[in-house]
Each structure stands twice: as structure tokens, then as C-alpha cells.
């Protein structure tokens, strides 16, 4: 019985990427212009100038890029704007997620009001709102904040495309497994020594 020689296995390195936040994720988490108008009208809040916020941030970033143009190479400008736009998108996404949690809490508190046997959720003393009402008002405020940050992010993304000439994509960094990588490297070396 003869043994066939096996070629040493090449270990393929799999690099996992940490997914960045996209503008589409922000739009899913934040109220759109129509929903923002409904929130504003229902709670007596000011209606934000969505288009104005978007355009202002577009101009802001374009003008910033123009002022930096002489001192930065194209690649340096792209990296710089990548980071700035990523900050806008990340901020809007965080606000959208916070808004979603506030809406969930407001819904839960409001649903508890339907149960007549619960005393703690009843309206407060005259002149004071119930806990459920405060949660609804808080969610409305968070909705407006999420929307205006979404508009700022949209303006920043549009500016990136205008300045750089390509569509903005979130930076995806490799996931680091520092503790595991040392053990894995040692195991690979030991296995290579065994043949």
C-alpha cells in the first residue's frame, strides 16, 4: 500500500468586514418628510425645513472641500470627506435607532392605558400629563431630531458625490480578533511543523 504525497494545504485567510452604516439604513430608521409633517402637526411642533437643511449641508461640505482643495491631494480629499460623511451618516443612524426605541416605549405605555385595571398609567393630576403622554411627546421630539439629522446626512452624501465624483460608501474595516489570532497562528505553525 503506497501513500500518495499530499501537497501542504494552503490556509485561506478569511477577512471579515465590519459593515458600515449606509444612507439606506438611515432612511429606514428615520421618519421621512411626510411622516415628519404628521408628527409636527399632531404634537404642535415646528415643521423643519427638510430641503433647506439638506441643501445647506451640501453647500457646507462642497465649500469646505473647495477651501481645502489646494492643500489636499485627490486621495486625501476623498479620505477626509469619507470620514466627515461617515460621521453625519452615523449620527443620523444613531438618532433614528433612538427614535425607534422611543416609539416602542410610547406604544407600550399607550397600550397599557387601554387596560382599565391599571392605576399607575392613568392620567396625572389636573395640569399634568400622563407618563404615556410624556413618552409620546418625547418620541415626537426624537422623530424630528432624527429627520433633520437624516437630511443633513443626505446633504453630506450628495456633496461627497459632487466633490469626489463617485457615490459614497461606508468604510468597512476588518474585524480584529486579537486574542484568537495569536492562538490561531500558533496552531497553524504547529500544524505546519507536523506536516
Fold topology:
Elements: E1 17-18, H1 23-29, H2 33-43, H3 50-68, H4 74-113, H5 131-164, E2 173-174, H6 178-194
Antiparallel strand pairs: 1-2
Protein name: ArgG
Organism: Xanthobacter dioxanivorans
Whole-Å distance between the termini?
20 Å
Q: Helix content range of the residues, please?
A: 55-70%
N-to-C order of helices and strands:
EHHHHHEH
Number of helices in the DSSP assignment: 6
Describe the structure.
The chain has 195 residues and is mainly alpha-helical. It contains six helices and two strands; from the N terminus they run βαααααβα. The chain has one domain. Helix content is 66%, strand content 2%. A two-stranded antiparallel ribbon has the order 1-2. Helix 3 packs parallel to helix 5.
Quick tags:
single chain; 195 residues; mainly alpha; two-stranded antiparallel ribbon; 2 strands; 2% strand; flat
Describe what is shown at a glance:
The protein has 195 residues and is mainly alpha-helical.
Amino acid at each position: 500500500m503506497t501513500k500518495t504525497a499530499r501537497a501542504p494545504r494552503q490556509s485561506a485567510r478569511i477577512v471579515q468586514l465590519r459593515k458600515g452604516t449606509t444612507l439606506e439604513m438611515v432612511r429606514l430608521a428615520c421618519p421621512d418628510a411626510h411622516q415628519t409633517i404628521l408628527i409636527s402637526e399632531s404634537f404642535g411642533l415646528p415643521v423643519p425645513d427638510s430641503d433647506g437643511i439638506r441643501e445647506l449641508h451640501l453647500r457646507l461640505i462642497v465649500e469646505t472641500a473647495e477651501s481645502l482643495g489646494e492643500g489636499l491631494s485627490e486621495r486625501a480629499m476623498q479620505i477626509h470627506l469619507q470620514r466627515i460623511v461617515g460621521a453625519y451618516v452615523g449620527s443620523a443612524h444613531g438618532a433614528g435607532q433612538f427614535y425607534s426605541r422611543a416609539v416602542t416605549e410610547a406604544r407600550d405605555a399607550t397600550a397599557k392605558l387601554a387596560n382599565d385595571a391599571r392605576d399607575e398609567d392613568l392620567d396625572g393630576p389636573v395640569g399634568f400629563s400622563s407618563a404615556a403622554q410624556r413618552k409620546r411627546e418625547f418620541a415626537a421630539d426624537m422623530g424630528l431630531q432624527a429627520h433633520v439629522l437624516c437630511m443633513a446626512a443626505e446633504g453630506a452624501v450628495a456633496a461627497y458625490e459632487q466633490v469626489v465624483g463617485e457615490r459614497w460608501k461606508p468604510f468597512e474595516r476588518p474585524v480584529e480578533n486579537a486574542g484568537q489570532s495569536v492562538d490561531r497562528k500558533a496552531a497553524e505553525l504547529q500544524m505546519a511543523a507536523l506536516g
